[in-house]
Amino acid sequence: MGFFMKLSITINKSLLFLSLFIVSTLPARDAWDWKNIDTSTVVFDTNKMLFGVALAEYQNSGATNLPNSNWAHWEKQPGAIENGQTSGVACDFWHLYKTDINLMKDLGCNSCRLSIDWSAIEPQEGKFDESAVQHYHDVIDSMLAKGITPMVTLHHFVHPQWFEAMGAFEKQENLKFFVRFCVFVFSKFSSKVHLWCPINESGPLAFQSYIIGHFPPTLGYTHLGFKFSFGTAGQVLGNLMKAHVLVYNALKQMPNGDKAQIGFNHQYLNFEGYNVWDKPIATVFRYTFNTVILEFLKTGIFRYDAYGFKATRIIYKDILSCIDFIGLNYYSEVIIRGGDARCYDHEVMTDMQYAIYAEGFYAAIKDLSQFKKPIYITENGIGDAKDDRRETFIKRYLYAMSRAMHDFNADIKGYYYWSLMDNFEWEHGRLHKFGLYEVNFDTLTRTLRPGAACIKQFFKPLPA
Ligand code: GCO
């Protein structure tokens, strides 16, 4: 991420000067007494729970391996990626997957969340590439041979360029193409894969693509091209909710549909305003990134009311019957402070524009537990190039997860760390380092970071 800061600066520019005079601040958020918390006794039983890493094909294999994707076209534009970088082969998981599966095994993983890339499977509309299908069979079979259960994401921010050209998720009539792809993949892999995430993070996908301008098709939030639109973002988000329901129903009717667990993935991203002037902007962001989706999960009605754009669509009133589990992506909670994304003084920032905030992870799990569905933590990790905060992050967040399981019986079935290795972090290119393994992008060698090693001690098969 990093997208909200620029937008908030723009919106808050006029308030920035005034905020310098603010003396009253809002109370600091919930903070645990970490000095007196012992995280060394926390352990999760891998006989009862999945532990893995989360990957996304484009981030790990890049434009060179996925030339027919919308990202491969989009990232070439000047200004699209920081420092003028391009993804290239990224860390070349496409070819090095066997090495990487061994690395997962070394960490003690018994699962992996990966994405099957639509542009690889269907590079041209209606033409499915059997060699790509075979490739994914090889990847999944290699995982299974090592005792690694795959969870497959069907859309992780990337789709074929032909789908982009026809307006992608802007148009309801295009959803049938996504459903057809999902049905095709399910028909090939459902005997081997039982955990599915149709769409990764609908909120960030819609807002990055149509408001912030860090994702295709828009370029730059200040480029007021015809694609930039709060209204279109809402329309896309509503269509993504609809797509989830269509895909769920289609897959459930197929052979192995009864065995499949099909989840709804959500990046739980809360925003708070540091002082009274920042509160309105925090409220708007909280609404668009989080509240809209949580309200949808409660009612099945998609209500979008932001920036003067209003829309109400009944998607499916019994929405929870179309969700077998909730996939929670959680990183932190953002504090808008003086028009910028910061943290409180006593907190530690990550390399992204948010702090280490495990208390928020606990709160997010609690909030999502209201839906009474199993929860998989489908992403959780830290960008930390210096590797001087990773160990603290891992210990605190895993402690928070165990506390949620203990305090209110949070039904957590699995945990996926983002990510196995450094990769292509979208508009930031290779700037941000989320990997447990550091990647040398010249030689593609992977090296376990000292701050990452502690994760192994948290996940173990315990005696019955
Ligand atoms: C997201 C994505 C990942 C990111 C990760 C780190 O949450 O934006 O699912 O693709 O790389 O979150 O920012």
Beta-strand segment tally: 17
The portion of residues forming beta strands comes to: 15-25%
- Which structural category do the helix and sheet elements fall into? alpha/beta
Q: Give helix % range.
A: 25-40%
| Count of runs of 4 or more consecutive helical residues | 13
Main-sheet strand order equals: 2-3-4-5-6-10-13-14
Measured between the Cα atoms of the first and last residue, the distance is: 41 Å
Topology:
Blueprint: H1 3-19, E1 44-45, E2 50-54, H2 57-65, H3 70-74, H4 93-107, E3 111-115, H5 118-121, H6 130-145, E4 149-153, H7 161-165, H8 175-189, E5 195-197, H9 202-212, H10 230-252, E6 261-267, E7 271-273, H11 279-299, E8 301-306, E9 309-314, E10 325-329, E11 334-337, E12 340-342, H12 358-369, E13 375-379, H13 390-408, E14 412-417, E15 437-439, E16 446-448, E17 459-460
Bound molecules: D-gluconic acid.
D-gluconic acid binds next to loops.
Q: Can you offer a commentary on this structure?
A:
- Mean pLDDT is 92; it is low at 8-23.
- 37% of the residues lie in helices and 16% in strands.
- It contains 13 helices and 17 strands.
- Strand 8 and strand 9 form a beta hairpin.
- The longest helix has 23 residues, at 230-252.
- It has helices at residues 3-19, 57-65, 70-74, 93-107, 118-121, 130-145, 161-165, 175-189, 202-212, 230-252, 279-299, 358-369, 390-408; strands spanning 44-45, 50-54, 111-115, 149-153, 195-197, 261-267, 271-273, 301-306, 309-314, 325-329, 334-337, 340-342, 375-379, 412-417, 437-439, 446-448, 459-460.
- It is of the alpha/beta class and 464 residues long.
- Helix 12 (358-369) runs parallel beside helix 13.
- The protein binds D-gluconic acid (GCO).
- Residues 1, 56, 59, 200-201, 204, 267, 329, 379, 418, 425, 434 line the site of D-gluconic acid.
